[in-house]
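User: I've been trying to design a sequence by hand for this structure and keep getting stuck. Would you show me what you'd pick, starting by listing the structure so we're on the same page?

Assistant: Good idea, let's start from the same input. This is the structure you sent:
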């Protein structure tokens, strides 16, 4: 067991990654490079990046499933490489996917097995399994075989497993993937309530809206390297974003993206996509000297006059805007961030 002295050391920080690097193929491929961050008690941290950015590798290193090639991951001050068993006692992990449970064993018996692995005392296992089943709304399916569950139900079973033993740290990789919207909403509420009780949560999701709703802070990585870490204002500032304007072109109009880009010029970035039979264009206005709210209003008015647009909407930049802008940044722009 991890001793009380280690648990009391810096109560706020429960997990720390220090200059962590992970390579594969005998060092030829670097999945994560020189990554450092801290998880704090009662806080939800969103780990975001495109596919292949290194998110799952990072979570696996935090969970002791992979050792760093260099650097350290510390759980309550204890190195996960030198004392992985002590670290695991404090961590709940959810990787999701279509495997991970005994398919012809009941939901309840699967969780009883994993409660044993999680070192839940024998006399408490039944009540602990009942608790996590209720939290993910699987009580009525406790007698079902794992292979009989739907994708969303199986995902909830993964979450239930991660909650066994009330871990100090919860590592959640795409926790609402495959869930119906109403169930996903309840799972988000559950994650929030778990954090309010003091658990540190590291969360990945393809839904930027979900991460922004849940997380207190964010880590943006690309090609295994950290781009920026902090609150939404920090991420938006790194992306040089202030406001965004979205408008639609009717298919009957002359859609001229180069003309829009020319009009916007150096004041922002322009993105477009097909949307419900229309062309939807988003202008991400740069947060630079002279780009006041009044000036953006004048530029938007000019857009409406110059181009035949519909459904014009301007708002402050959100996490998805900042993430997309960072993904498009050139090396020169990153050097100025």
């Amino acid at each position: 067991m991890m001793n009380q002295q280690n648990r009391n050391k810096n109560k706020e920080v429960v997990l720390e990654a220090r200059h962590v690097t992970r390579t594969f193929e005998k060092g030829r491929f670097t999945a994560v490079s020189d990554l450092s961050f801290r998880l704090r008690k009662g806080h939800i941290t969103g780990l975001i990046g495109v596919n292949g950015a290194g998110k799952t590798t990072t979570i696996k290193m935090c969970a002791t499933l992979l050792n760093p090639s260099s650097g350290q991951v510390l759980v309550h001050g204890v190195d996960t490489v030198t004392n992985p068993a002590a670290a695991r006692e404090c961590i709940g992990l959810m990787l999701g996917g279509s495997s991970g449970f005994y398919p012809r064993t009941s939901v309840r018996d699967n969780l009883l097995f994993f409660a044993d692995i999680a070192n839940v005392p024998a006399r408490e296992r039944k009540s602990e399994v009942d608790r996590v089943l209720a939290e993910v709304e699987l009580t009525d399916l406790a007698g079902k075989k794992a292979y009989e569950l739907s994708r969303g139900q199986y995902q909830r079973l993964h979450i239930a497993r991660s909650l066994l033993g009330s871990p100090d740290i919860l590592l959640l990789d795409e926790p609402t993937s495959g869930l119906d919207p109403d169930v996903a909403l309840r799972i988000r509420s559950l994650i929030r309530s778990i954090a309010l009780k003091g658990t540190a949560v590291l969360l990945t999701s393809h839904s930027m809206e979900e991460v922004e709703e849940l997380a207190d802070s964010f880590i943006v990585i690309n090609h295994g390297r950290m781009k920026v870490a902090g609150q939404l204002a920090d991420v938006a500032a790194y992306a040089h974003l202030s406001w965004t304007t979205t408008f639609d072109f009717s298919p009957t109009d002359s859609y001229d993206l180069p003309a829009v880009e020319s009009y916007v010029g150096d004041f922002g970035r322009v993105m477009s996509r097909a949307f419900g039979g229309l062309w939807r264009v988003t202008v991400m206005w740069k947060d630079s000297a002279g780009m006041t709210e009044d000036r953006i209003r004048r530029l938007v008015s000019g857009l409406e006059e110059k181009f035949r647009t519909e459904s014009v909407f301007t708002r402050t930049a959100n996490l998805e805007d900042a993430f997309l802008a960072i993904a498009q940044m050139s090396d020169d722009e990153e050097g100025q961030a």
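That's my pick for every position. To get oriented when you compare it with your attempt: The longest helix spans residues 181-196. The radius of gyration is 23 Å.
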